[in-house]
Every structure is written in structure tokens, then in C-alpha cells.
Design brief:
By secondary structure, the chain is mainly alpha-helical. It is built from 7 helices and 2 strands. The chain has a domain of about 100 residues. The radius of gyration is 21 Å and the shape is extended.
């Protein structure tokens, strides 16, 4: 898999050194939180993560209606990561094979590593790591987004 495509908005800000035609009809999903998928509600920890992340991503102005599946996958993986860490601390790094009696590395170690990689990649997609934040640009905050301006309009209106 090659390098991910750079969104048109970022090309416009950075410039277009390759001089390739820009996508003038790139989809623009509506900003705001998507509805939480029903399958996530059955996993209490994943649902908690959804409710923790949505307000943060909204404040960062990176969450749109099209991000539901990606955010759900992140929340599920965070819940899985938590389960793996708990079970690994209970069972330890090494386990004995009941059939042969030999000692092996706990399979949870591999699962923990794979899940950590998936969580890290998803966090990058949403600009939630220090390095990834430097690559993301959001629209400037408007007066309508500013809570103080909203309060001022309500009290003066």
C-alpha cells in the first residue's frame, strides 16, 4: 500500500509542487458527531470511549458525520486493548501449554501489540498524537463557534 493521498484542502494550503490537477469535487461531509453505532452500545467500555472522544474531537473540529465507522473501530480497539492489558497482568507473560507442559509466550502479548498498532494508527487519523496534530489543519473558529459569543448574543438579544 502506497502513501495515503493528501486531501485537497491541505494541498491548497501547502501548495501543489507536483502541479497535478486538484480535485475540485472532493466530498465535504457535515461537521459534527455521527450517531453511535448500535453494536458499540453492547460493549460498555467502547461506548464510554465513544462518549469520551466525541466531545474532544468536536472541540478539535475534526469530527464529521462520515467518521462513525472509523471512530467506532477506534473505540472498540481501545476497549480490546484494555481487556488485553488486564488479562495479561492476571496471566503473566509466559503460559504453560497444558498438553505438552512446555512454557510459551502468552498469545495475549501478540494481540496486545497488534491492537496497540491499530489504536495508534486510528489516533493518527483523528490527529490525536502530538506528531499527527502538526499535519492536520482545521477551519478557523468562527464567532458562531465561540461559546462566549453565543452567550453574549443570548443575553443581548
Amino acid at each position: 500500500m502506497g502513501r495515503p493521498r493528501i486531501p485537497t484542502a491541505i494541498k491548497l494550503v501547502r501548495g501543489n509542487p507536483g502541479k497535478r490537477p486538484l480535485n475540485q469535487r472532493e466530498p465535504q461531509p457535515q461537521p459534527g458527531p455521527p450517531p453511535m453505532p448500535e453494536k458499540l452500545a453492547s460493549n460498555e467500555l467502547a461506548a464510554q470511549e465513544w462518549h469520551r472522544l466525541c466531545p474532544m474531537l468536536e472541540r478539535m473540529r475534526v469530527l464529521t458525520e462520515a467518521d462513525g465507522i472509523a471512530l467506532a473501530n477506534l473505540c472498540f480497539d481501545v476497549a480490546l486493548l484494555d481487556d488485553c492489558q488486564k488479562k495479561l497482568s492476571e496471566t503473566g507473560l509466559l503460559v504453560r501449554n497444558k498438553a505438552t507442559g512446555l512454557i510459551h509466550r502468552n498469545p495475549l502479548v501478540d494481540m496486545l501489540g497488534q491492537t496497540t498498532d491499530r489504536v495508534t494508527k486510528a489516533l493518527r487519523e483523528f490527529g490525536m498524537t502530538p506528531a499527527s496534530r502538526s499535519n492536520i489543519q482545521v477551519a478557523p473558529e468562527t464567532a458562531a463557534d465561540n461559546p462566549w459569543e453565543k452567550l453574549k448574543r443570548q443575553t443581548s438579544g
